[in-house]
Amino acid sequence: MLEIGRALLLAPELILIDEPSMGLARKVTARLFGTLIELRQAGVTVLMVEQNARSALAISDDGIVLEQGRLALAGSADEILSDGRVGALFLGGGLGSGKKPPL
Fold it and tell me: Does 98 reside within a domain?
């Protein structure tokens, strides 16, 4: 949160954020992702790299899936969440409903 605050002092149009949920408790992660949603609503573009794919895609417009450093899939977050290949390989399966999971 401190790093996001420091970045916002410069009134950026784009924020790059790498693994924001790493090492955080679930409740803190939910609050952090809520802050990222607020930034997006304020017109700030957020480019995020995140291992917690379900939570990241749940708040994203678009996503890119890399497999061993190569582009495997790109599209809307909804398309990626509902793609069975991605669910089986990266998200632990069971996402065939296409619904966005809760944080």
Answer: no
pLDDT in tens, 57-94: 889 999 998 878 888 889 999 998 888 777 666 655 44
Residue 38 CB-density burial (10 A; 0-12 exposed, 13-18 middle, 19+ buried): exposed
**pTM score, two decimals?**
0.72
Task: Find the domain containing 7 and state its range.
Answer: 2-89
Q: Report long-range pairs for 90-96 (Cβ below 8 Å, ≥24 apart).
A: 90/53, 90/65, 91/53, 91/54, 95/54
Residue pair 91/82 in contact (Cβ under 8 Å)? The answer is no
For tokens 């970045």, what's the residue? 7
Say how far apart CA 81 and CA 24 lie, in whole Å. Answer: 23
For 12, what's the count of Cα atoms within 13 Å in the CB-facing half-sphere? 16
Q: Is residue 100 part of a domain?
A: no
